[in-house]
Amino acid sequence: MLIEIRKLKLNLGTHAVLRDINLTLEKGHIYGLLGPNGAGKSTTISVITGLRSPTDGSVRVLGLDPVADSLQLHSRIGVLAEQAGFYEWMSAGDYLRWVASLYKIQPDQAEIAQLLSRVGLEGQSPAPIATYSRGMRQRLGLARALINQPELLILDEPTNGLDPRGRREIHDVLLDLSVNHGVGILLCTHLLDDVERLCTRIGIIAEGRTLLEGSIADLLSAQRAAVRYRLRVESGDITQRIPDDITLLARAGDWWHVEIASHVEPASAWRKLLDAGIQIDEIHREGGGLEELYLSVTEAKEVSR
Ligand SMILES: Nc1ncnc2c1ncn2[C@@H]1O[C@H](COP(=O)(O)OP(=O)(O)OP(=O)(O)O)[C@@H](O)[C@H]1O
């Protein structure tokens, strides 16, 4: 197991930032860590990389304690942080050689050129990093994370600032690392397209808790078992009148997102709504897919608050 987190809690000052995080990542898998702004994703990464000590719970990364075994851990992982800083006056090649020296590695010219080409920065070598666009910085950050041939890559928004072609190129690099080299990748992103293309497993967190974790295939097929609809009903709050067969997920103005258990015939559910005095103006069936799963899980959280 590359990452194993159980019941992680972290208080920062008086704020319980992480309340119950659970996450497991195996070799060769790409894990999508998802959740709304402020959910605790970056803070979870800071615990995984040993920057913060857990208040409670267990965290093992490559079988190590990220705080106590920090030096050993960092020689075996690669990290692309949300805000990547560089020495702006250096060229990419000089910068990567300097980073390599921290790992006591001495890559030759060809190896540096190969790494730059792998992330799509070939031919940029002589220009100072100060002249780089945001997308080029992301690529250089990824090259830096790969310099020590890590077993585990931790990437916070790796395709930020990249155009569609650049995103696709980075996808290909990550898939190659995972499929052909067995590298485990923890990918923190808001781009569900990236997740659907790359990840085999996801965890959705909100307010410092893991709400859902598992393989994408299992989660989506389980989701399809229950059918979701968007209903527009006469104005007014229907929360107190909703029959047991229908689960309320979220409200958006006059629209209500509901779920009907697989064993319930939708027509009979709508009849029960009418019996409860709820007039339905429109019904839209909502399909499956990761975006729907993400929205239903995070919106359900909002309704239950
Ligand atoms: N040093 C700190 N002291 C107190 N609270 C903090 C501290 N750092 C972060 N937080 C809070 O912890 C919560 C989680 O923040 P975090 O940056 O981990 O979220 P995130 O899921 O990465 O969000 P985003 O998607 O916007 O990057 C936020 O409410 C944030 O305000």
Automatic annotation (TrEMBL):
InterPro entries to which the protein is assigned, alphabetical: AAA+_ATPase, ABC_transporter-like_ATP-bd, P-loop_NTPase
Domain ABC transporter: 3-232
Keywords from the UniProt entry: ATP-binding, Cell membrane, Membrane, Nucleotide-binding, Transport
GO molecular function: ATP binding; ATP hydrolysis activity
Family (UniProt): Belongs to the ABC transporter superfamily.
Protein name according to UniProt: ABC transporter related
